[in-house]
Amino acid sequence: MRKPRVTAATSGPDGLASTGDVAAIVAGTHGDPFAILGVHDAGKGLVARCFVPNAEFVTAYTLTGKNAGELSRRDDAGFFEGKLSIKKRQPLRYHAKNAGGDWWLTDPYSFGPVLGPMDDYYIAQGSHLRLFDKLGAHLIDHEGASGVHFAVWAPNARRVSVVGDFNEWDGRRHTMRDRRDTGIWELFIPDIGAGHPYKYEIIAPDGVRLPLKADPFAFKSELRPATASVTAVPPAHEWGDEAHRSYWRKADPRREAISIYEVHAGSWQQHDDGSFLSWDELADQLIPYAVETGFTHIEFLPISEHPYDPSWGYQTTGLYAPSARFGDPEGFARFVDGAHRAGVGVILDWVPAHFPVDAHGLANFDGTALYEHADPRKGFHPDWNTAIYNFGRREVVSFLVNNALFWAEKYHVDGLRVDAVASMLYLDYSRKAGEWIPNEKGGRENLEAVSFLQKMNKELYGHHPGVMTIAEESTSWPKVSAPVHEGGLGFGFKWNMGFMHDTLEYFAKEPIFRKHHHNDLTFGLTYAFSENFVLPLSHDEVVHGKGTLLGKMAGDDWQKFATLRAFYAFMWGYPGKKLLFMGQEFAQRREWSEARALDWNLLDFRPHRGVWHTVRDLNYLYRSRPALHARDCEPDGFSWLIVDDKENSVFAWLRSAPDGNPIAVISNFTPVPRDNYRVPLPKVGKWREIINTDASDYGGSGKGNGGVVEARAEGGGISATMLLPPLSTIMLELVAD
């Protein structure tokens, strides 16, 4: 839909603007202000026109300070025009006066455009991969002046203005230039710099003035509850993380140890008054803690700007702006750099599935369904009362793909965990019959979303090797983590929601009943290598009345702690990368709330400290033993040793890799010690006990095998007879000859 245009009778024979044009400028309804304002030819000379509210007198000057002529007031609201003494068109400054004083301003309408035809071409094609360098607010020098260049996509608007503290939020003063081929509006405003709040005032196609809109490409935002975008100097951080980035560029992440600590930045720790830590404070405390606990990566719940704390960041209104809750964007760059220098990667939770309908956000952005679908059967998400991106629109796809590239380039993030992928893939997600529209082939698959995800992954992996993408995808959609050229979605990894569901269901059962549910823990190995999996014990499992991981374990307090330790070792020995939500590494007792910090005092108590020590040691083993990580995603790294001892609720398997000693993982999920228990092993010799979750150092009963067992050839096979401690997991490593 193309917007109606204002026909500009630019000037009459005497060089004066038409009365209609003057009235439209003063009213803020003119669709093409550059046709009227600024410097224009008038016969053999030049004329200048400007709109300066509250001025009584205006004199024009060149940027070098040369007097260029007096302008006359055509309209008492502040419209001035007059002939110039200069011979060549050039930018002007105005000296304005009234009874109260005088002031200077530089005329934005005397400057040429910043964007060029090549930008138009690639933007219109949907192939521009540096939109974040063109759209939004950029501090630049242009035609001899310093200022801010604003650019925003609003193809159906009648008029778009920049408003802010620099123009008293008056939409008449800085109406933008419409680049009609692309629907981009742009304006260079001289004499302003960083730190100014601003929004866009948009007149919809029907002439209605919309609520002021934040900039979709804002790189900085005001602290909530304020919602304006803020002009900002681009991050100029001097990075010192080349060693970290070079390592991951060359690595195959499927064969690397990846143990992820999932963190909500606002509630990991807080100040005594409940206020948030800054990025620098988080760097001082969180990075050393992650290193000490042995995690390889920190994954933040969404840190993009969002208006509502209880959304945890999943309803974002500023995809390009690190939230003001934690300080300036530069602070986030320092955090990432600090983490990298300490050998820790940073993954961001990323939300391209939907966006909130707050009035200042993307919804109905130019008076039409621009970023979302107009039909609520495709454009409205019933679960979250949010809008769904229109993945069939190339400009929307470009907006999102560029955002993925932006975080990798500007902030050096190591990966994106993509939220709610299942909701994107299915047109009937959370919808009843008649509430959704089939695709062009009559199916339920969202083919446009599939194409978007494939494009995003191709561009991100193509331009930033070393960065990984992780899909939160809860269905059996095939090839989520397969390459696009093989028909996959192109993700690096996929969350294994089945592992999470089955294990938590199993451990919630009293030990005496677990023999009837043995298959809950063995079934997962039938599909464990169908994708590149991350095993997630995430924030979703410890909110909304679900309690905590400790609380989910069956039995009395001692059994709960023992089972949790055994579960963690089971998981760290299981094929797949690891993810644990904050607080669960020390057995947080209270359910997580974004409104308060974790209960760090629990680390003063032996059972909680024991769980933390268990996780720390598991991370060390996982990272240091190739057998535990180098074949996480390949079936030749796993083989069952004991799969069917349901009567004793015992499980045992072997992990192996070409460049490491094999490791046997043995779990006993009853509170009964199993003495003289025979475990098949692949080689004769001594097998050293490298972890025993029942060790007294961890808060267990201290039962074990003296640190070593001997495998012997007996009865046509090789096995070791050992004690299996109660509610425990042990790992045995073959001692090299």
UniProtKB/TrEMBL annotation:
Active site (catalytic residues): 419, 472
Keyword terms, alphabetized: Carbohydrate metabolism, Glycogen biosynthesis, Glycogen metabolism, Glycosyltransferase, Transferase
Class in the EC hierarchy, top level: transferase
Name of a matching Pfam family: GlgB_N
Catalytic activity reported: Transfers a segment of a (1->4)-alpha-D-glucan chain to a primary hydroxy group in a similar glucan chain
CDD domains with a match to the protein in the record: AmyAc_Glg_BE (cd11322), E_set_GBE_prok_N (cd02855)
GO MF annotation terms: 1,4-alpha-glucan branching enzyme activity; cation binding; hydrolase activity, hydrolyzing O-glycosyl compounds
Cited SUPFAM superfamilies: (Trans)glycosidases (SSF51445), E set domains (SSF81296), Glycosyl hydrolase domain (SSF51011)
SMART domains reported for this sequence: Aamy
UniProt cross-references to InterPro entries, sorted A to Z: A-amylase/branching_C, Branching_enzy, GH, GH13_cat_dom, GlgB, GlgB_N, GlgB_N_E_set_prok, Glyco_hydro_13_N
Boundaries of every Glycosyl hydrolase family 13 catalytic domain copy: 262-606
Pathway: Glycan biosynthesis; glycogen biosynthesis
Protein's GO biological process: glycogen biosynthetic process
Record-level GO cellular component terms: cytosol
E.C. numbers: 2.4.1.18
Free-text function comment from the UniProt entry: Catalyzes the formation of the alpha-1,6-glucosidic linkages in glycogen by scission of a 1,4-alpha-linked oligosaccharide from growing alpha-1,4-glucan chains and the subsequent attachment of the oligosaccharide to the alpha-1,6 position.
HAMAP family: GlgB
Family affiliation: Belongs to the glycosyl hydrolase 13 family. GlgB subfamily.
PANTHER family the record matches: 1,4-ALPHA-GLUCAN-BRANCHING ENZYME
Subunit structure and binding partners: Monomer.
UniProt-recorded name of the protein: 1,4-alpha-glucan branching enzyme GlgB
Lineage: Bacteria, Pseudomonadati, Pseudomonadota, Alphaproteobacteria, Hyphomicrobiales
